[in-house]
Amino acid sequence: MSHKLYKNLIGGEWVAAKTGKTFLNSSPANKNDVVGEFQSSGADDVDAAVKAAAEAFKTWRLVPAPKRAEILYRAGHLLEQRKEQYAKDMTREMGKVLAETRGDVQEAIDTAYYMAGEGRRLFGQTTPSELPNKFAMSVRMPVGVCGMIAPWNFPMAIPSWKLFPALVCGNTCVIKPAEDTPLSTFNLVQTLIDAGLPKGVVNIVTGFGPEAGAPLVEHPGVHAVSFTGSSEVGRLVGQVAAANFKPCSLEMGGKNAMIVLDDANLDLALDGAVWGAFGTTGQRCTATSRIILHKSIAAEFTEKLVARAKALKVGDGLDESVEMGPQVNEQQIETSTKYCEVAQQEGAKLLCGGKRLTEGAYANGTFFAPTVFSEVKPEMRIAQEEVFGPVVSLIECSSFDEALEIANSIKYGLSTALYSRNVNNAYRAIRDLEAGITYINAPTIGAEVHLPFGGVKQTGNGHREGGTGALDFYTTWKSVYVDYSDKLQRAQID
Ligand code: NAD
Predict the structure, then answer these.
(1) Which of 13, 68, 212, 484 could form a disulfide with 41 if both were Cys (CB 3.0 to 4.6 A apart)?
(2) What pLDDT digit, counting tens, does each position of 323-357 carry?
(3) Which atom in ligand 1 lies closest to the alpha carbon of residue 151?
């Protein structure tokens, strides 16, 4: 079957990479299904994109924010109209089931409308001056050219979290999508173009991390860097940005815990566990990868969870009856396989799954069976390190205090969940769980776009996407003093 050739978007033109190289993007459900051919870009392509963004910034920053926002409203509307097609494209290139890719597109729609609303807010402060006949205020200024590097697991939602707030704030952008999911970024940006975005305001450079991502972080013309991905790569990105004093937002890995206490609604917790652990094939930064069970309910919960995991229908996400799609690529399968081996070597008990699915319809894809481990100890690697696959670890505890201690005993701090009907426990969890997100009686996944999104410890470096946190990253404060006294007034002296 012939496939389409996609080019980089630079200064409003579709151009081939100067490297002369391309790569194929194929479906994880069937490697013979080629979704498209994309440019394998290098430093020269990044340079051209940054220059185009710098040129566009000269005029885009002067467009009134409510007018910039109108483009986002229109893009949101177009996304609504194209939701089904874009969801299908996303399932084909990334694997997750249609219900979830529809949700991914919906997240971009929600972000478009939320950030468009900011066009008429972008609030600063007015405050009294200490001197007479003097006016003081602070205003948000755009940062300039923003470099954006995205992962593959939320191929449209995450680029929208980066692009839409940056745009409404008056910045111009160069985005490098993940090599596994460039098409969804093209679809997102196409809605902006069709909504009237001027040339050069958003530029796309596709390619691989070291060749196309690293030059974007290093480029002196990039004023801020927004990265979502693994902690290993995030560390590199952060170091390069720091050396150049660039603002840098890092959103990275997780090892998210769900605590189920003896007073929980067990059926509700079970539903949450299945969704949290196996939704997106476990490939969410917020995936439930540890379930900390009170020992009095552990046996019953474990038995029911294993039955549910075994019953999940795994297959091509385009089939509406499928509940769990493939993993995104061979590398993720290798990681899941490796961790299943390590877990068993360390003494964890494999209750189901633990292997790649290869028979019949699975033969040409990267499918992994839903996997549950019991008898996991908090210090084991399977309980400490991010797997990013459909693999969940069950850890027993004797008390709520112990559960909190186990939940916090990791280097990450993204999402957490508590299932309990006791309001005192709920508020203690909110206070004591070391994480950027805590859910009560809901799984660790399910963020909404108008709340801050991000984590503590090695999950992030203090910034937030979503909500007003994003505005804080994509603007810089300017304090303004207007003296109408007609004389020199000296602060702190007169
Ligand atoms: P990854 O770190 O391998 O890649 C992320 C992006 O960085 C890709 O676009 C890649 O091409 C690029 N990249 C790779 N090497 C680079 C380099 N040297 N310089 C610059 N860019 C480079 O991550 P992934 O496998 O795409 O995504 C999975 C990871 O993302 C998981 O760890 C997951 O937890 C994390 N994630 C975090 C969040 C969050 O908001 N906290 C959300 C989604 C995913």
Answers:
(1) 212
(2) 999 999 999 999 999 999 999 999 999 999 999 99
(3) 26
